[in-house]
Amino acid sequence: MNPDHLSILVSSFETSMPFYDALLPLMGFDKIRPHIWKNADCFFIQLRQAHQDTSPYERNGAGMNHIGFGAPDAKTVVLIRDRMGALGFEVPDIQRLNGASAIFMMDPDGIRFEIIHYPPGMHVIS
């Protein structure tokens, strides 16, 4: 079995949608309906409004820490970082992880999207 979707609950559509509308197309996702994107591998990302009075994401708390997406090359990591920065989003430095190049883009609720390129011969999640 392969994963087929990811549901993300955001604290505010108004605050979060500009981030996702910018980032997901850069990662190869097409918006197919309001708040739902799909990539060429038929992996779906769905955004939903979180219920009021719920806890926000915590960096080292229990639950999902981040989701990683493999970039085809290191230039794509730079491209995504540069385009998101040009759109006014906070962009992290590129991290060098034992030869891999990665950025961790954070949405307004603190959910992290890792964009990473592994050089040939390097294992995923080293």
Explain this structure to me?
- With 126 residues, the chain is of the alpha/beta class.
- Helices cover 21% and strands 32% of the residues.
- It contains two helices and eight strands, in the order βαββββαβββ.
- A hairpin with a 5-residue loop joins strand 3 and strand 4.
- The model has no long low-confidence stretch (mean pLDDT 90).
In short:
The protein has 126 residues and is α/β, with parallel strands linked by helices. It is 21% helix and 32% strand.
Helicity, in percent?
10-25%
Provide the low-confidence segments as ranges: none
Number of β-strand runs: 8
Mean pLDDT figure? 90
Beta strand %: 25-35%
The helix count comes to 2
Structural class: alpha/beta
Q: Between the first and last Cα atoms, what is the distance in angstroms?
A: 22 Å
- Report the major sheet: 4 strands, mixed
Shape: globular
Any idea what the radius of gyration is?
15 Å
Order of helices and strands: EHEEEEHEEE
Order of strands across the main sheet: 1-4-3-2
What topology emerges from the helices and strands here?
Elements: E1 5-10, H1 13-26, E2 30-33, E3 36-38, E4 44-49, E5 66-70, H2 74-86, E6 95-97, E7 100-106, E8 112-117
Parallel strand pairs: 1-4, 5-8
Antiparallel strand pairs: 2-3, 3-4, 6-7, 7-8
